[in-house]
Amino acid sequence: MFLKFQNHFSTQFPFLQKAKILIAVSGGLDSMVLLDLISKMNVEFAVAHCNFQLRGDESNEDEHFVQSYCTSNSIKGFFQKFDTKQFAEDEKLSFQVAARKLRYEWFYELLATENFDFVLTAHHLDDQLETFLINLSRGTGLEGLCGIPSQNDKIIRPLLHFSRAEIETFAKENNLKWREDSSNASDKYVRNKIRHQLVPVLKELNPSFLDSFENTLQNLNQTQSLVDDASRMVYRKVVQDVDHQKIINLNELLQLPNYQAYLFQWLSPFGFSAWLDIYDLVNAQSGKQIFSEHFRLLKNRNTLIVETKSTEISSEYFIHEHQDELNFPLKLRLISVCEIGKSDAKTIFVDAEALKFPLQLRNWQEGDYFYPFGMNGKKKLSKFFKDEKFSIIDKEKAWLLCSDNQIVWLVGKRMDERFKVTENTQTILKIQLV
């Protein structure tokens, strides 16, 4: 196995020969074999071990085992304890997801602080198969069937072409010691159930199943590359990236054969999964929206807009008397002037004596109304938005400057007739959106 690994390592990852490597070592069979293989190569490396404190004394014994190995072999080691249960509770994650998040965050921290170039993990071919079957059982697209990548940014997995059986044989032939994780024996977890109950049946049906699976995985990845290339070409025609938003032109999208496949390809990375609802959204009325954990998909006229889900609550900000500037959330400047100058969308002139301080800057609310400058009578803001063809995005971004809860200015759009300068005005205040 070593010669096979050495050849794979040098041909697939030649840049590692001169890199500073961090090896993720749990103390289990796979990571101890990876550590032994790397130690036989002429590369600079160190060990990183995570103690997630999820298995009581067992977790501490794993840590002690790796520490002892590093000491005996003069290997530099980094060791970190995590309060995984508390973190999982705080972040509302499963223990497995929480541990993975903590693990990789710490690895990237070590890369930065200790000047390592890459992290090596011991994922192998059987892990690939289990991940494939998990994704298949949950429902996924082509990308979800392509398995674990051999390299993902700074994370490299050099054992992905080696089976668990090969790894165990190598360990026994070389008298390696490792720790057994008792949780691996439990069928409480989906991965273990697949490993213990489903995979043996597949291997019994076809003794060369792992080889066949690896070939299939290679075919799927090649197909995914073709899909990605085609998707990128269409993406440039149909999607605009504007101010942290992705705007999908529905007129262009609906001309595509099987447009749903493109939506799936573009929206899956944002965590959307309610595909029937998403396809219905294409023909829904403007303003309808769907949410994933961190993003929303909004129907806005002839577009679908993907953007980060807002965590802001409706806020209000105050401008006190004699305050001549507001810097957040908008930059407003207030200046006393002797006469009216040129008004535009960003500049208004108001009767200062009609104002009651503090002025309030807030989002619009249902039921808001004002007296649009140049018009007779009052108008509901919702009706004004409709007449002016405000999109739902425009409405969400609208700010109102108010005096005693009366609208002075729909900022950047229209001031209120009640605060205009008249022949009786004594003091003029210029308010400018900078």
**What is the CATH H-level superfamily of the largest domain?**
HUPs
Per CATH, the architecture of the largest domain is 3-Layer(aba) Sandwich
Tally the beta strands: 22
Please name the CATH topology of the largest domain: Rossmann fold
- The count of helical stretches stands at 14
Point out poorly predicted stretches.
none
**Amount of beta strand:** 15-25%
How many structurally independent domains? 3
Mean pLDDT: 92
| Biggest sheet record | 6 strands, mixed
Which radius of gyration do the C-alpha atoms yield? 31 Å
Q: How far do the termini sit from each other?
A: 68 Å
Quickly name the level 1 CATH class of the largest domain.
Answer: Alpha Beta
Query: What is the spatial order of strands in the main beta sheet?
Result: 3-2-1-4-6-5
The backbone outline, from C-alpha atoms, is elongated
Q: Structural class of the helix and strand makeup?
A: alpha+beta
- Give the helix level as a range of percent: 25-40%
GO cellular component, one term: cytoplasm
Binding site for ATP: 26-31
Domain Lysidine-tRNA(Ile) synthetase C-terminal: 359-431
GO molecular function, one term: ATP binding
Description of the structure:
- α4 crosses α5 and α6 packs across α8.
- The protein has three domains: 2-124 and 147-185, Rossmann fold (3-Layer(aba) Sandwich), CATH 3.40.50; 229-308, Uridine Diphospho-n-acetylenolpyruvylglucosamine Reductase, domain 3 (2-Layer Sandwich), CATH 3.30.465; 316-433, 3-Layer(bba) Sandwich (Phenylalanyl-tRNA Synthetase, Chain B, domain 3).
- A six-stranded mixed β-sheet has the order 3-2-1-4-6-5, sandwiched between helices. It has a five-stranded antiparallel β-sheet with strand order 7-8-11-10-9.
- The chain has 434 residues and is an alpha+beta fold.
- The model has no long low-confidence stretch (mean pLDDT 92).
- The protein has helices at residues 2-12, 29-39, 57-72, 84-91, 95-113, 125-138, 164-173, 190-205, 209-238, 250-253, 259-267, 275-281, 381-387, 392-397, and strands at residues 20-24, 44-51, 77-81, 118-120, 151-152, 155-156, 239-242, 245-249, 289-291, 295-300, 303-308, 316-319, 325-326, 332-337, 347-351, 359-363, 369-370, 379-380, 399-403, 406-410, 414-415, 428-433.
